[in-house]
Structure of Protoporphyrinogen IX oxidase:
Amino acid sequence: MNEILSMLYLWLKSAHLIFVIFWMAGLFMMPRFFVYHQESPVGSDEDAKWIEREGKLRKIILNPSLVIVWVVGLALAYDIGAFSQGWFHAKLLMVLALSGYHGWMIAYSKKLSRGERTMTDRKLRLVNEVPGIAAAVIVILVIIKPF
Ligand code: HEM
């Protein structure tokens, strides 16, 4: 029985990491899309194509991956009793921040599809650094478990 449970845990952890990769890929791609999208005139064919690409990235990659990473991550945490451990509290804080960033990106892609362009390219490129930094901190927290 214990063997089955530990096998299940490893399968869950694999699923977690697979969807973390999809989620992160989407988080890295979207602001790049925004930079190219903003170069096209509002209402042009190019604008319509970017709106469609961003919609697909949201619906096919970003939103499903976010949900799966959270559900499987919480199941893993329950399994190993992580809720009382310091590294997990810090990780939760980081993934909440990353989920907030996800929410901002979804909102900005909807703004772009309404023809509103409120951020400069420079700001978008800067913001693009957020998921990389967050991912590095999260990986160190889960692997090293410093506290
Ligand atoms: C969204 C909510 C998330 C929750 C609740 C969560 C929770 C967990 C838990 C409980 C583990 C098992 C740790 C262990 O077996 O020692 C784990 C593993 C892992 N998580 Fe997450 N996680 C989340 C998101 C993420 C994100 C966004 C990343 C990376 C950017 C990430 C990267 C990893 C890695 C690399 C492991 C493997 C650690 C190991 O095998 O030692 N997780 N996660």
Observations:
- The chain is about 85% helix and 0% strand.
- Residues 40 and 47 are 6 Å apart (CA to CA).
- The chain has a mean pLDDT of 96.
